[in-house]
Amino acid sequence: MVLTVVGALVAGTAGAGPVAGADTPAGTASDRARVLTIVQTGTPGVARAAEIALAGSDADVAEFLRTGEAAVRVQDDRVRVGQLISVGGRGLREAAQAALNGTPADVTAFLETGWRAPLEQDMRVRVGQIMSTGGRGVREAAQAALSGTAEDVWQFLATGQFAPAERDNRVLVGRIMAVGGPNVQQAAQIALSGTADDVKEFLRSGQYLARARDQETTSVAQLAALAKESGEQATRETEAAKEASARAVEASRLAKEAAQRAAQETEAAKNDAGRAAEAAGRAADSAG
């Protein structure tokens, strides 16, 4: 994209001199034909100035050919260099600014050939940035481009990076799917069955929404398990309490019966001190 824009900006007649010669007779039909050619082929500012000259007198046409075209062309060239600053990388911007700080000849030299080396360096820097954040396929393709020509670097930036990036994205989705929960696995499978944009969307945000749903499901399941466990524990405790109560009732009944028997034995043995004391002891034990 950048190379296309730069090529369009530097193409044309940057730095070219006036179409007409200084010895051309002023105001002739030939002068107007030359100015008409400039309208059709000149840079934007030059073309507009040529139109204005054509709408004027023969003297206006002659003055445009003598000095006006060159003056406007210098300004057009500076505008084009300024446009390069807005689209280029750091190296191209610095070289363009240096040209603008120089003479019209510096601007012309930059537009003719001076932009190429800093642009190529900027492209290599950009490939390195993509390489540092890409997957295995992107890194391999980027390294191959950096080991090649400037055209190889440009082709990688223009088109070559995208196919390996798509493959890397699919590999990453597969890895996430392998360790994810049910919702993550389902969302990942849908993405893999879709387009490259679907895969990107899953990696950008879909995986996190699915993980949140898995986490929510896990939390609900954990709460349900805790509730079930608590219910089972409560049931066990209730049963244990019932059993303890039953044992207590039975123990109370047995104790009451034992106390009654002891009382009866005490009454029956009241004339026998030893037996009476023994029966009284059993009655006390039963009551305790």
TrEMBL record:
Q: Which InterPro entries match?
A: DUF312_ALF
Record's keyword terms, sorted: Signal
Task: Give the signal peptide as a residue range, or say none if absent.
Answer: 1-16
For the keyword Metal-binding, the answer is: no
Provide an example Pfam family for this protein.
ALF
Bias regions of kind Low complexity — which residues?
A: 276-288
Q: Where is this region: Disordered?
A: 230-288
Keyword Signal annotated: yes
Task: Specify residue ranges for compositional bias: Basic and acidic residues.
Answer: 230-245
* Annotated protein name in UniProt: Chemotaxis protein
